[in-house]
Inverse folding.
């Protein structure tokens, strides 16, 4: 199921690629090790300081480049509750849903807030709230195909469920 | 209203008369490609208790990223993959001597016009050079495809590039796609299909078309297509593994945008760190010394690319401060280059000829960069740390520009050499 999405904002810009999330040098490492290198090359403090429920807030085309699923998986493994962006690169978007990490397309995300703001996302209400500034943004509902996967917690639990029914 | 290539293929694959952009469909997959990603795909499958593939004849697996394995961990992964291939009965497995997955699938006749293909690699889109709708997905979704043979798609809008004119000597399709990235940005085709047309596109070889479709991924595209013409059918004549038809966009298809380009005066192009759309013509590059030159990857390491490099380098030596790596895209390319004497000429110029595969393109294997080093490569991405140290710098260019730069030791216009 979808975990709590309430925590601090980690702010990123446009065109953040999946190589900087999990570098090719590390992608064969077990996730417990790999996640410690997440964003190492652009935000070296990220892996150590990210806490469960924290949220990535970004601009356009978040997750461009390689199809490596380790990118959203490492963010999820560090406890990131959701990624909120103006737009996503399509494979990153699909991969996030496929592992049960809500990737939220949200117009205005780039100006939602700054690093360290307290924020919360509600999938039921389709709102992202910055508690530090009081700013509230609405987002569109997920299409049914994606919602089914997200509610299951990702493709792997979905396959297990299909196997058992 | 007519349909684009993407609409036609997605309609056929989802059993519908017609589909509209923005609509979600569940489509039957014609072919699924995995490379080293077979490892994580099978971990998901086996954890979920799935031990059968929907159609082992429609799955192709190629080992290319860490081949041959540089570490014990990678060697163990390859053994896991080999056993999983047997367990699932995968019919088409290319293990130790094939090359980069995309080149191998095309050469071995797995890719046919009109197919819907997914691959666990972002450059799967390359297959559009032969008229297939092909797109990258991650390993969890691939596990779903392995199980069910189906996947959901959002029908994309299509943008069309009509490219006219004839390319000047030593200017190639890599320069064309880099110039498009520079002009229209890395998100120009986000969530969209791209169709390439026009006289310049008609003139391109299949190899050059693969380069363009391959890098359509770098402008965000979901699918990229060239029209299926006589070159396509000639190429497939002795390769195709199945019968095939031709799928063409209708003349009255609706496009989100149509861009007209003229390439007769195009200069060689160079993408600067750390984004593929940070592009300058070679005349505006300035004085940039390099430590490594890489001619390789699914983007640009086919026979015509090696031939071009050998032509530019003819009789000259690689600069003493430069390592030049040549990594043929496949064993077929490698052997053809040996037969043609290209390997000998490149080797005599001082190039290091490596095993066919992905090489250092994604920073995993065979030729990584130290901090402070600068590389020019025919590969597809120049993100921070992509080929090694985050303090290294990577420039992207054509085979001709990479070869010229290897000789002079700095980024160099191949037309003046």
């Amino acid at each position: 199921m979808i975990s709590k999405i309430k925590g601090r904002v980690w702010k990123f810009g446009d065109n953040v690629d999946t190589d900087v999330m999990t570098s090719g040098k590390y992608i064969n490492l077990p996730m417990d090790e790999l996640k410690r290198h997440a964003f190492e090359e652009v935000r070296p403090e990220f892996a150590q300081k990210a806490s469960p429920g924290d949220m990535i807030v970004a601009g356009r085309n978040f997750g461009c480049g390689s199809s490596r699923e380790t990118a959203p998986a490492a963010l999820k493994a560090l406890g990131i509750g959701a990624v909120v962006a103006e737009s996503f690169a399509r494979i990153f978007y699909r991969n996030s849903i496929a592992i049960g990490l809500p990737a939220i397309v949200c117009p205005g995300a780039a100006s939602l807030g700054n690093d360290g703001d307290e924020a919360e996302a509600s999938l039921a209400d389709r709102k992202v709230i910055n508690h530090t500034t009081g700013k509230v943004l609405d987002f569109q509902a997920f299409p049914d195909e994606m919602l089914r996967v997200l509610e299951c917690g990702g493709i792997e639990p979905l396959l297990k469920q299909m196997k058992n029914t | 209203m007519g349909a684009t290539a993407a609409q036609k293929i997605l309609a056929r694959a989802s059993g519908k008369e017609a589909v509209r952009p923005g609509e979600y469909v569940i489509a039957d997959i014609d072919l699924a490609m995995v490379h080293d990603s077979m490892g994580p795909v099978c971990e998901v499958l086996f954890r979920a208790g799935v031990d059968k593939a929907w159609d082992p004849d429609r799955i192709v697996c190629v080992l290319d990223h860490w081949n041959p394995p540089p570490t014990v961990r990678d060697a163990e992964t390859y053994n896991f993959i080999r056993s999983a291939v047997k367990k699932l009965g995968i019919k088409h497995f290319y293990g130790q001597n094939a090359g980069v997955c995309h080149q191998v699938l095309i050469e071995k006749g797995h890719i046919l016009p009109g197919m819907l293909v997914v691959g666990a690699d972002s450059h799967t889109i390359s297959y559009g050079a032969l008229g297939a709708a092909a797109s990258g997905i991650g390993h969890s979704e691939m596990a779903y495809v392995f199980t069910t043979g189906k996947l959901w798609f959002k029908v994309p809008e299509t943008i069309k590039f009509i490219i006219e004119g004839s390319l000047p000597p030593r200017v190639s399709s890599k320069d064309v796609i880099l110039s498009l990235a520079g002009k229209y940005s890395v998100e120009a085709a986000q969530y969209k299909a791209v169709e390439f047309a026009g006289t310049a596109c008609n003139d391109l070889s299949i190899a050059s078309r693969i380069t363009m479709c391959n890098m359509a991924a770098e402008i965000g595209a979901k699918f990229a297509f060239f029209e299926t013409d006589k070159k396509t059918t000639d190429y497939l004549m002795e390769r195709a593994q199945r019968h095939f038809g031709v799928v063409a966009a209708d003349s009255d298809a609706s496009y989100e945008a149509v861009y007209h380009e003229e390439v007769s005066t195009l200069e060689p192009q160079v993408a600067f760190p750390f984004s593929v759309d940070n592009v300058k013509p070679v005349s505006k590059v300035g004085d940039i010394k390099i430590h490594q030159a890489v001619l390789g990857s699914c983007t640009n390491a086919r026979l015509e690319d090696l031939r071009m490099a050998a032509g530019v380098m003819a009789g000259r030596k690689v600069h003493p401060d430069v390592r030049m790596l040549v990594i043929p895209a496949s064993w077929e390319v490698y052997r053809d280059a040996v037969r043609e004497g290209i390997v000998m000429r490149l080797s005599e110029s001082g190039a290091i000829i490596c095993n066919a595969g992905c090489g250092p393109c994604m920073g995993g294997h065979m030729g990584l960069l130290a901090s402070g080093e600068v590389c020019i490569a025919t590969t597809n991405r120049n993100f921070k740390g992509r080929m090694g140290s985050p303090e290294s710098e990577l420039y992207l260019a054509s085979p001709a520009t990479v070869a010229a730069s290897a000789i002079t030791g700095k980024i160099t216009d191949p037309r003046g050499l």
